[in-house]
């Protein structure tokens, strides 16, 4: 079955063809040759019916033309009004398959042929011929209008189907994008979790390891100091466990709870007592709140620097300077170890660079001429526009001109020395620390 053909058109065609056949069988007064010609016409129309196309752009002129001519011939030999409906069906096919212009031209041709036939062959008066022609023209215009409306409805339905397909495709694409975004979010969260575990638990375990090594080394000579290191290791182990639990709930250092700025940094430096590190913290300029994000960045920067000094550089003295300018903050951490010497950075500094970048700042690592290793964090306020590229700390990388130049070196220069007078021996405290 042709799905493009309107169902009502099919019902009308077979109804008209059957009615015409019955009428021809009952009309004995019609000559036999005329009835045979009418029957042959109906048979040919029935054979051509499945070959007709009913959607615009798919019509075939030879089939449509033959069907139209057979409809005209059937009406001329039939003489009944039933055959007129077959002609109108043929006109409908022309309009649906080839558009309203073809339908209008076909209607005009039928009107001219009808008028000429009535005038010369039917020996009608011009007025009577015009009357007969007007009826054909009226029927033709009605059918052509109806067929045009069907074409427009089909075009609207085709557009709706096309839009539906596009919407379905866009929905599939959007679902794919959502899945990829979910995968990226999961991957990013895993990186953040790894960074948090490295920055928190790794720091605690490093201090615990060094403290236990000191306790083992000096347990006979200075048992009180050794037990103090064991007690600190026990405390830090509990802190590490709490950090693991906290990472599941949030991604903010617990040491910052209730503390901020230099106070949190001093508490962090205090946790390194007994490891052999002598940490001095100096605040330059008028200290002001930086917000939780940037305070976390500075806290993690100092934590990573102290941990790296303990693990890798072999330094024992750490100088920390926290500077405040009207539109920026700077943290500089310098140790007296052997420096990076162009070695590639590990996961810790790479993760720290990502943190600083996310906060709108820059991270620079250098080997000072006097020796050691230096990490500098510059955090402008407010953060500038950040590019999509992820910066990596490069030894000796230059700081953009003017970045942090306004940080004052005089004024509120309070200095705090932590661990300088600690009773635990400093010599060899980090000699056997295994690099992570």
From TrEMBL:
Its EC number is 2.7.13.3. It holds the Pfam family HATPase_c. GO terms for cellular component: membrane. It comes from Catenuloplanes niger. The chain crosses the membrane at residues 34-54, 66-90, 102-121, 128-150. GO terms for molecular function: ATP binding; phosphorelay sensor kinase activity; protein dimerization activity. It is an enzyme of class 2 (transferase). Residues 388-406 have a biased composition (Low complexity). Keywords: ATP-binding, Coiled coil, Kinase, Membrane, Nucleotide-binding, Phosphoprotein, Transferase, Transmembrane, Transmembrane helix, Two-component regulatory system. Residues 293-383 form the Histidine kinase/HSP90-like ATPase domain. It catalyses: ATP + protein L-histidine = ADP + protein N-phospho-L-histidine. Residues 146-180 form a coiled coil. Residues 379-436 are annotated as: Disordered. InterPro entries: HATPase_C_sf, HATPase_dom, Sensor_HK_TwoCompSys, Sig_transdc_His_kin_sub3_dim/P. The lineage of its organism: Bacteria, Bacillati, Actinomycetota, Actinomycetes, Micromonosporales. This is histidine kinase. SUPFAM superfamilies: ATPase domain of HSP90 chaperone/DNA topoisomerase II/histidine kinase.
């Amino acid at each position: 079955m042709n799905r493009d053909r309107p169902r009502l058109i099919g019902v009308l065609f077979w109804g008209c063809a059957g009615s015409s056949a019955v009428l021809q069988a009952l009309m004995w007064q019609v000559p036999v040759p005329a009835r045979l010609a009418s029957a042959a016409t109906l048979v040919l129309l029935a054979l051509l019916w499945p070959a007709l196309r009913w959607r615009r752009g798919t019509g075939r002129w030879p089939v449509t033309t033959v069907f139209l001519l057979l409809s005209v011939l059937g009406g001329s030999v039939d003489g009944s009004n039933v055959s007129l409906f077959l002609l109108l069906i043929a006109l409908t096919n022309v309009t649906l398959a080839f558009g309203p212009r073809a339908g209008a031209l076909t209607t005009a041709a039928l009107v001219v042929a009808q008028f000429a036939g009535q005038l010369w062959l039917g020996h009608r008066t011009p007025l009577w011929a015009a009357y007969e022609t007007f009826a054909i023209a009226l029927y033709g215009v009605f059918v052509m209008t109806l067929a045009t409306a069907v074409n427009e409805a089909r075009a609207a339905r085709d557009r709706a189907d096309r839009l539906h397909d596009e919407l379905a495709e866009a929905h599939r694409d959007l679902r794919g994008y959502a899945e990829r975004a979910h995968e990226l979010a999961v991957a990013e969260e895993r990186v953040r979790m790894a960074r948090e575990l490295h920055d928190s638990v790794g720091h605690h375990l490093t201090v615990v390891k060094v403290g236990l090594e000191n306790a083992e080394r000096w347990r006979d000579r200075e048992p009180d100091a050794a037990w103090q290191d064991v007690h600190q290791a026990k405390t830090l182990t509990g802190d590490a466990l709490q950090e693991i639990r906290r990472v599941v709930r949030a991604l903010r250092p617990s040491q910052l709870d209730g503390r901020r700025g230099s106070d949190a940094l001093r508490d962090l430096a205090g946790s390194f007592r007994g490891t052999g590190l002598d940490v001095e913290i100096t605040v330059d300029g008028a200290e002001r709140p930086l917000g939780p994000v940037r305070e976390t960045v500075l806290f993690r920067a100092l934590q990573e620097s102290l941990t790296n000094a303990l693990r890798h550089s072999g330094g024992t003295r750490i100088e920390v300077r926290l500077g405040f300018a009207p539109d920026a903050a700077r943290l500089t951490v310098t140790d007296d170890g052997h420096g990076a010497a162009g070695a590639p950075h590990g996961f810790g500094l790479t993760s720290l660079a990502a943190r600083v970048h996310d906060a709108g700042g820059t991270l620079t690592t250098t080997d000072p001429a006097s020796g050691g290793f230096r990490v500098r964090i510059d955090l402008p306020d407010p953060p500038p526009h950040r590019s999509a590229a992820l910066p990596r700390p490069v030894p000796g990388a230059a700081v953009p001109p003017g970045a942090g130049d306004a940080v004052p070196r005089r004024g509120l220069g309070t200095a705090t020395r932590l661990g300088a007078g600690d009773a635990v021996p400093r010599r060899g405290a980090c000699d056997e620390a295994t690099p992570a």
